[in-house]
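Justification of resources, computational component.

The compute hours requested in this renewal are based largely on the per-chain cost of generating structure records like the one below. Each record pairs the submitted sequence with a full structure-token output. That output is archived, and it is also reused by downstream analysis tasks.
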Amino acid sequence: MIFEIEIKTKKGFSDPHGIHTVSDIEGIGINGIKTAEYIAVYRIAGDITLKQAEIIASELLSDKITEDFCIKEYKTPEQKKIEENSIEVWFKSGVTDTVSESVVKAIKDLGIDEEVVVKTGKKYRLKGELNSNKLKKIATGLLANTLIQEYLIK
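The structure output for this chain reads:
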């Protein structure tokens, strides 16, 4: 099973990464983006249950005061749907993801002994005047280092 855990800032709290992203987008010459929401994403593949994924999300990956989490479940990566007006950035296969290595160790520390593979990513939900060309330019010009990262846009 594959669980994708999204960690985002709760309503009422500032999302500084999202705010800076809008400013950085303007800095590369793209106008019309009103807001950007930053979401940390953890893809966990392995023989764990939804309850274990909830423990990982609440006890390890999120801050109970300032962050919310959402868990999506897939049988295969192909089942995942990309949200409209969003950009996801992930490390390419074979690139060392030190955060994911730390998460795997911390999951074991939580007492979850099942073998898991973790991949970390970032999602940006954008609002404003958008089209596929703008999304691609934002992804390649700002958010993803295409030598080591891949991106998904819609």
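The radius of gyration is 16 Å. The longest strand covers residues 33-46.
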